[in-house]
TrEMBL record:
Poorly processive, error-prone DNA polymerase involved in untargeted mutagenesis. Copies undamaged DNA at stalled replication forks, which arise in vivo from mismatched or misaligned primer ends. These misaligned primers can be extended by PolIV. Exhibits no 3'-5' exonuclease (proofreading) activity. May be involved in translesional synthesis, in conjunction with the beta clamp from PolIII. The keyword Transferase applies. This is DNA polymerase IV. Pfam families: IMS (PF00817), IMS_C (PF11799), IMS_HHH (PF11798). The gene is dinB. Belongs to the DNA polymerase type-Y family. Its EC number is 2.7.7.7. Mg(2+) binds at residue 125.
Length: 404
DNA sequence: TCTGGGGTCCTAGGACCC
DNA sequence: TCTGGGGTCCTAGGACCC
């Protein structure tokens, strides 16, 4: 979907069309206040000189999406809001409306599956679609079906999208970027050298900042340069799996299937504080946030019908370094108090001398709640005995007072 | 002026078991 | 007397993606 979060807001505020709009920001405290004051949620970036006020509004937030007009000013996804304000003080800022975004996400996806049932979810604004067996899916190399999907989505939602059609997901993903917004791009196997090899290696889905930097140090910048390397040389530098995969990717090869269904592995809740907090000095505030995260997470699990057995915490220090601690229970749970207690034990195993900017709670090892039968699993087998391995970490803290 | 939130997957070491 | 070869599970960190 093209500039999805921003486009969803433009449906509500068509008067913003063509203007630089950025979606994101902190907003926690001021959102309600702002709605009351303005009757709508749009805020023009306050001049950067009135920094304290601006900071109150956009806080530590980042940009989720910027309209194409805003991108002209050099602002873009994942950029800090305060930096965006400097680059483009005339931009209009809106908080993300997750409910609205999810509504349109469901709508565009159901529109697609009515036409082409084999669809893989790739987040709120992106999917893979298998054209292979769709009637007419091969006409004009897929262009006819792509146009049909674009038209159906626009009619249902008023939103535009960009579609790449190719022999596999790897190439289709790259193709989808060629003609944005509202474009269609077809990439055939034969187009590898002309359309793919000139691109930067970072355009490969799976090569991120770190791998990109490492390749640059090895004087490899384009996908063509990557394709020219011996597989063994890449394996020597990036390891067996990654090296071999890189070589395949550079040659446009990808046999991964379109996965239409999957079960979640973990669920989590995390929050960055408005200001850094200290475990001792801000103990009460931190404790309340901690409990709130556990409560919300338990609600998420229960609402979606999952239980998990590995409880984890994550925290981020003021220097932005993160640490995690996990603790696996011998029973499955979606209970707020159990999560809170276990996460509390995990939290004690982490140094709490430095100030914190983020706290998170996670539950992993998920299974569907209905599989949680005291005697039998769905396949009729009696579950294995719980893992009774002595747990040093639990033993060492079980008798001390809870910190929070 | 530092840098959101929610995910998945991979790696590597250690414990433990047969 | 120098100490195999699987295999699974757990944990911590990190890369990457939307």
């Amino acid at each position: 979907m093209d500039a999805f979060f921003a486009s969803v807001e433009l449906l509500r505020y068509p008067q913003l069309k063509g203007l630089p709009v950025v979606i994101g920001g902190g907003w926690r405290k001021v959102d309600e206040e702002l709605r009351a004051a303005q009757g709508e949620r749009a805020l023009r970036f306050i001049p950067v000189e009135s920094f304290p006020l601006l900071k109150d509004y956009v806080g530590r937030g980042v940009i989720t999406t910027a309209t194409y007009a805003a991108r002209q000013f050099g602002v873009g996804s994942a950029m800090g809001m305060m930096k965006a304000a400097k680059l483009c003080p005339q931009a209009i800022v809106l908080p993300v409306d997750f409910e609205e975004v999810r509504k349109y996400s469901r709508l565009f996806k159901s529109t697609i599956t009515e036409i082409a049932p084999l669809m893989q979810d790739r987040g709120v604004d992106e999917v893979y679609i298998d054209f292979t067996e769709v009637p007419g899916g091969q006409r004009e190399g897929g262009r006819v079906l792509a146009r049909l999907i674009q038209k159906a989505i626009f009619e249902k939602t008023g939103l535009t999208c960009s579609i790449g059609v190719a022999p596999n997901k790897l190439l289709a993903k790259m193709a989808s970027e060629f003609n944005k917004p509202n474009g269609i791009s077809i990439v055939h196997e034969d187009d590898l050298q002309t359309m793919i090899w000139p691109l930067h290696v970072r355009k490969i889905n799976g090569i991120g900042p770190k791998a990109g930097e490492k390749l640059a140090r090895l004087h490899i910048h384009t996908i063509g340069e990557l394709a020219a390397q011996e597989p063994q040389w890449l394996i020597d530098h990036f390891g067996k799996a990654t090296g071999a995969w890189m070589h395949e990717a550079a040659w446009g090869r990808d046999d991964s299937p379109v996965v239409t269904e999957s079960e979640p592995v973990s669920m989590s809740r995390e929050t960055t504080f408005d200001r850094d907090l200290h475990a001792v000095r801000d103990k009460a505030e931190l404790g309340a946030i901690f409990t709130e995260l556990c409560t919300k997470l338990a609600e998420d699990l229960q609402r979606k019908g999952y239980v998990g057995k590995t409880i984890g915490i994550k925290l981020r220090y003021d220097n932005f370094k993160s640490v995690t601690r996990d603790q696996t229970l011998d029973t499955y749970t979606a209970d707020a108090q159990t999560i809170r207690h276990t996460a509390g034990l995990a939290l004690k195993r982490v140094p709490l001398d430095k100030r914190l900017r983020l706290l998170g709670v996670r539950v992993g090892g998920l299974i569907k709640a209905e599989e949680l039968n005291p005697t039998r699993n769905l396949d009729g087998k009696v579950p294995a005995a719980p893992n009774n391995r002595p747990h040093d970490a639990i033993d060492s803290v079980a008798h001390t007072d809870q910190l929070f």
